[in-house]
Amino acid sequence: QMSEQFNRELSLSGKIPSGLFNNMFEFTGSWQKDAASTKSLAFDGWCITLYTVALSKAQIVLRDHVKQAVPSTWEPAALARFIQKFGTHIVVGVKMGGKDVIYLKQQHSSSLQAVDVQKRLKEMSDRRFLDANGQSDISFRDAYGKEDKSDRREQRLRFVESSPLNSYASKEDLVVLPRRRGGRDKDMLSHSEWLNSVQAEPDVISMSFIPITSLLNGVPGSGFLNHAINLYLRYKPPIEELHQFLEFQLPRQWAPVYSDLPLGPQRKKQSSASLPVNFIGPTLYVCTNMVDVGKRPITGLRLFLEGKKSNKLAIHLQHLCSLPQIIQLEDDPYNNRTPEPFDRKYVEPIGSWKRFSHVCTAPVESEDASIVTGARLEVISQGFKKILFLRLHFSKVVNAHSVRQPEWEGSPNLIQKSGLISTLISTHFSTAVQKPMPRPADVNINSAVYPGGPPAPVQPPKLLKFVDTTEMVRGPQDLPGYWVVSGAKLHLERGKISLRVRYSLLTAMLPDDEDYPLDDEF
User: Fold this and answer.
1) Are residues 228 and 155 in the same domain?
2) In angstroms, rounded to a whole number, what is the distance separating the alpha carbons of residues 428 and 444?
3) Contact between 370 and 332 (Cβ < 8 Å)
4) Is 494 inside a domain boundary?
5) Centroid of chain to Cα 166
6) What is the reported pTM?
7) Among 202, 236, 270, residue at a domain's last position
């Protein structure tokens, strides 16, 4: 709602946050993650408009060379060059004057109610803008306490109780951002003194924009450009990596698709095994069929309970529906190697039958620039013991290099096994034992009828106590937005089988693009 309000002031439509909105509230991530980490937004202040300079929108046209730079097809490299060269919007109006505004951002971890946040904002506004005579004599700096120059641009205030013992536990996680534009000596003057100086020293306080695509009607490829600009504004990837980002913004789907899952009696016997996990109760069957997506990158994995009784453990892969243009794949020789004997330290028992059912938690990864394009589960019997393994199929990326170090999602290195002594020491020196805040729920911007898949059964499967079916995926909201799966491992946590996924950023080594001038006129 706040983003839409800002857009209306800028003569823009839609919900995608503008640069002004992001700057005022200091949002730097993707729209989806920023919204999930924020509970509420508010602002209060003064805005003085002295005059406005505006262009007639009906008379604005683009030069021919700008229209000719629009690619007629989906070409990520050309689209990225266009956005970097010409931008996304054109300034058609400027308001001059001054503004003195307090912006307030309530983080997800804050426990304040909306009424309390509004009350805090009013208290700050009264202290900043008013005195007993209705005029403010408090300077910009004194209203928030004397701070170093480096801290004046961003004031992060946390409202605490008077008791120092409870101060840490009662922090309210409100980010307060006072902003001034126009006027003289912005940091030193009181509000009333600043008001009197605005007319002599005005500044730009607002602009009006039109999307550059609104001037490209009838130009072949303008729809592709509009889609690329929307992706860029929504997820905010680094401009220098926009080419790679756009290469991977292709439709995604899960394999196998839901219509391929057997729901009734099957004439053809499927490959499966069993893994006893309890003395009394249903048996956990394991689907050992290979799920191969061909020469297409995988962006996520999940464990799934298939079958009418939801008692067959399977692995599903989320993949791009086509191969990005800059990527070439070939079979990895690693796939034909004989698996090395597994280390016994990775074999962990599961369920009540700990002598009989085990899971191998060894990481499965390739040492070179390879990505996962297939996966299957396997159960190996050793006497009375059954061990569940994860097997991956790799494809090598031709002429590729890694942009940064691979990352394990939910890496075991982040879960430290603390003994009793270390627990007592950390508890003794902690000022307060804090209950961890719940993870903010993702903001779902998918317009599908069932964005999370088909409806789940009313009665949750009994075997969910042994299997974690969380989807481990990375998409455009995980900057820089072109992660691919390069490894995985089975993991046991609190008696449940789960997945840990290794993500990599790989890009093909291409010849440098030809230099092009960036000072062309519109």
Assistant:
1) yes
2) 41
3) yes
4) yes
5) 34
6) 0.79
7) 236
